[in-house]
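Q: Predict the assembly, please.
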Amino acid sequence: MSLDFSPLLHSWRFLLGGLGLTLGLAALTVLCSLMLGGAIGLARCYGPTWVRVLLVFYIDSMRSVPVLVVLVWTYFALPIVTGAVLPPFWAGLIALTAQTAAYVAEIVRAGIESVRPGQARAALALGMSRVQAVRQVILPQAIVRMLPAFGSILSIAIKDTAIASVIAVPEYLDRSQTLAGQSFRPIEVYLTAMVVYFIILFPVTRTVDIAYVRLAHLGRS
Amino acid sequence: MNLHWSVVWDNAGALARGTELTVLLTVATMALAVPGGILLALMRLSGSRPFAWFSASLTELFRNLPLLLVIYASYYVLPLALGVAFSPFVTALVALGLNVSAYNGETFRAGIASIRKGQSEAALALGMSGWQAMRVVVLPQAARRVLPVLASTWVSLFKDTSLVSVISVGELAYTAMLIRSRTFRVLEVLTAMAVIYWFLGYPQAKLADWLNRRFGVSE
Amino acid sequence: MNMRDDETDAPKVLTYLDVRKIFGSFVALAGVSMEVHKTEVVCLIGPSGSGKSTLLRCTNGLESIDGGEIILDGHTLPRDGRGMRAVRQRMGMVFQNFELFPHMTALANVASGPLTVLRLPRREAEERAAALLEKVGLADKAKSYPANLSGGQQQRVAIARALAMQPEVMLFDEPTSALDPETIGEVLNVMKALAEEGMTMLVVTHEMNFARRVANHVVVFERGTIIEQGPPTQIFDAPLVVRTREFLSHLGWAG
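A: Predicted assembly structure:
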């Protein structure tokens, strides 16, 4: 079995474009889901009961349904409901954000709940309002504990962008598939893809591991 | 909008069979990946450098690759590399099995390592061999710690089986997409697919949550 | 070889010859030599980090030694802790943190050695275990799990567990240091009874009253060496070495 990487060398610009889209989509997903998920997480902890019930239902539903299903539904079914056309990239962004925000919300909840209840009581006893207690005492402590978990969100987002290939978002995996089909050299193409993804993801997961170790002591009261 | 929900009932049989295959795939993968994970964990914790390195490398590899890529790679590379043609189901099993084994390996390793050193010392002090200490004292305790994490992994696996639809394994996602392209009833079929996954996934996620509350170790 | 002034006629069980142990750059044992005779109770005392626990753990091979020899009944023990399995069956160890197996009842804990290591039939192992639990005063707790036992009760079960292997020597690593004051007494009583029955015991402890009353021989450690050893009357009433005196007064020992 001889390996011929020339199609890859030939089409490196094509693949690089795909890689750019992978990273771009991942970054945007992380950004949007941090904002959305942060808001959902806070509302889930401190909002009125009916809001909390709704949000818990949303979070649990997103945890129960595969990413593929959300992507496919968003791209094919949502336009039918809204009547608006949705290009693949934006469908992908909406679907991935909706999913990832649920995880972010759970991280936020876990972070807030990990702060000792005595802290909130002490803050209120000092005369702070609820908002001040949350902003100045609870959140700073909670955020430190959330940081390693947020890191893994980036890793998950990058991996999930690959699933967006299913709705023809031209990210790296989709482009790899195209190239494999055209060049009839799937082994070389997919081996290269594995190397590329590994090189991108390894530093991220490594950093998260280190962050967990370094910040573990802060997680203990 | 002109909706015909009857298309779901008309194809209920096919959807049911797809669901069956989803469940079968999940169960079969876990059946392989639990012993696989234990093996990898013991290799990682053994004194032997080559075993430990191999196990650690395998785990790192699968942590840093998208599962969909692993599935495609298995589909195209395995037959060419091994010279044997595998059915899509077997290919899917291999890809999922390797992936989940790597994650389980890390889970079991962390679970075993979380048992206080003093426990194995007390076992050794009684005259037990290293393997006896592992079997009688460490593993039974680690099993309790590991259970909630395994449950979460199970739920993720259940969802990830949808990915093998891309290599034409006839599980739920593939079946639903097929029905959609045959009937053109996009919204109804895709919504039905989502709802079926929700009905199956939601209780599993809640069970995993309960296990985490009951058996989880808080830091 | 006479290392001690208070020689007894009893045969030597354990002999330590110039034992050394290093952890990285920290010297835990800097050449320790001593003897333990049959039926003796030897107490090791001294400040934390002085090497007492390390010596105990080297004795049953939980730590390897980097120099010198440990001799059990005339046979030199292997340095690296391998092949120590048979040796460990002849020694019992009691840990500061009890280290009972939380997933087993008290009875199962005590029976675990005979069952797994000696491969006794279950009934015989459990009978032996029940008898030992009776001996330490916990027959009624046989079916309890360690989580439902007090510290003192757990430690007594741990002692029974070690005794179930019918060891020649019992090693105690600060057995009462993790106990509430109320429960220390019940454990020391069990140890005292054991001593009176003639068990050879090597005890690392901070309980000076116990050492004064029960020990036949006391060894004082500091920074990995033995600074003084002798009968309790010498160590506690008229120590020969200034550092010993300082250590004891630091503990509030009024003599």
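Chain C touches chain B through 25 residues (CB under 8 Å). Chain C has a mean pLDDT of 90.
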